[in-house]
Amino acid sequence: MRWIILAETTALPGLIVAQLLHAATFGATYLATMHFIAARAPDGLKASAQGTYASVSGVVMGIAMLSAGAMYGALGGDAFYAMSLVCVLALLLGLAARRAATGGA
Fold first, then answer.
1. CB of 49 within 8 A of CB of 41?
2. What is the DSSP letter of 105?
3. What is the pLDDT of residue 105?
4. Alpha carbon separation from 44 to 10, 50, 73, 87 (Å, rounded)
5. pLDDT tens for residues 40-68?
6. Which helix (DSSP H) or strand (DSSP E) does residue 59 occupy?
7. What CA–CA distance (Å, rounded) separates 6 from 80?
8. pTM for this one?
9. Any residues with CB less than 8 A from the CB of 63 and at least 6 apart, and which?
């Protein structure tokens, strides 16, 4: 939803809603990741797992920023629609992974 809002408006109320959505999704993702690491990483390696996560996510974020900048340069505001498609693909991948992890339930 956030990317679609950003594609549709530059009005301040819309931008505020988009940023609130970003805060909520980032916060939820970060907390879920830390919960997963705490539950699954072996004792003595939890801090290393958190550091690895931070490093890998930083590299991925850098690549994503470069890609998004190039996409925005080519498509302008329509690049936000492409970003929303990436989110839909991630959602589908997450749902498929969850289904596989629970045995198809």
1. yes
2. -
3. 62
4. 47, 12, 45, 34
5. 999 999 999 999 999 999 999 999 999 99
6. helix 46-75
7. 7
8. 0.75
9. none
Residue recorded with tokens 């990483």: 41
Torsion of CA 23, 27, 30, 33, to 10 degrees: -130
DSSP 11-43: SHHHHHHHHHHHHHHHHHHHHHHHHHHHHHSPT
21, 2 contact by CB (below 8 A): yes
Task: Count CA within 13 A, CB hemisphere, residue 9.
Answer: 12
Quote the pLDDT of residue 103: 82
Q: Which amino acid is at 68?
A: A
d(CA 75, CA 81): 10
Locate 62 and state its tokens.
């850098």
Residue type present at position 41: A
